[in-house]
Amino acid sequence: MVDQFVVGIVRGSHGITGEFKVESTSGEYGHFACMEEVTLTDGNIKKTFSVESTREGAAVLYMKLAGINSPEEAAKYNRWEIVVPRKYAHPLQKGEWYIEDLKGCSIIYKETAEDAPAAEHVVGTVTNVLEGGSGYLVEILLSESCSLLADSVKLNKKGNPKTVYVPFKDQFIGEVDVEAQKMQLMHLWILE
């Protein structure tokens, strides 16, 4: 499991002291109050800062980091991600998972027969979880070796494995076990 999480995104400077606005990736802001240190990253560069203060506003958090003391300095980090250790991420409720823990999970389909135990087939791997219009979508890279799927379903025109998107809803995704790195697919037809 991943030890570091993106918990927010810098959304511009605020005021004259180097404070900036933060959008929480979880939609929650209370867990920011206990952060002592954060890492800012643009995907290539990482910089670690001590947290001087945080305060909640209307659907935004204001954060002041040591060493960033002007609006111009704060503006340099616009759109950078805020990364923290797992212990500072928003606590999970029942039926919630961190997206980073879902990435890399095998997508399992259980084929049932009347007189035999269910056979498990790996149909793909989770590469991401994205926010869609009506909820979250699980991005799945289909497995070339899955015998349950026709080549026209699992391969694109160039012969490479397809990526498909499945709604992250109970009727399509069953049991999720991040410790075993498995997610259950309820229906094969959703991949077509």
- Tally of strands: 12
> Helical region count?
3
Shape descriptor reads elongated
Largest sheet geometry: 6 strands, antiparallel, barrel
Instruction: Return the structural class.
Output: mainly beta
Low-confidence parts = none
Task: Note the gap between the termini.
Answer: 30 Å
Strand ordering within the main sheet: 1-2-5-4-3-6
User: H/E element string?
Assistant: EEEEEHEHEEEHEEE
Strand fraction: over 45%
* Helix share bin: under 10%
List the helices and strands and how they pair.
Blueprint: E1 4-14, E2 19-24, E3 37-41, E4 46-56, E5 61-65, H1 71-75, E6 81-85, H2 99-102, E7 106-113, E8 116-132, E9 135-142, H3 151-154, E10 163-167, E11 173-177, E12 182-185
Parallel strand pairs: 7-12
Antiparallel strand pairs: 1-2, 1-6, 2-5, 3-4, 3-6, 4-5, 7-8, 8-9, 9-10, 11-12
Please give a handful of descriptors for the protein shown.
192 residues; mainly beta; six-stranded antiparallel β-barrel; six-stranded mixed β-sheet; 3 helices; 7% helix
Describe this structure as you would to a colleague.
By secondary structure, the chain is mainly β. It is built from three helices and twelve strands. The protein has helices at residues 71-75, 99-102, 151-154, and strands spanning 4-14, 19-24, 37-41, 46-56, 61-65, 81-85, 106-113, 116-132, 135-142, 163-167, 173-177, 182-185. The protein has a six-stranded antiparallel beta barrel with strand order 1-2-5-4-3-6. The chain is elongated. The two termini are 30 Å apart.
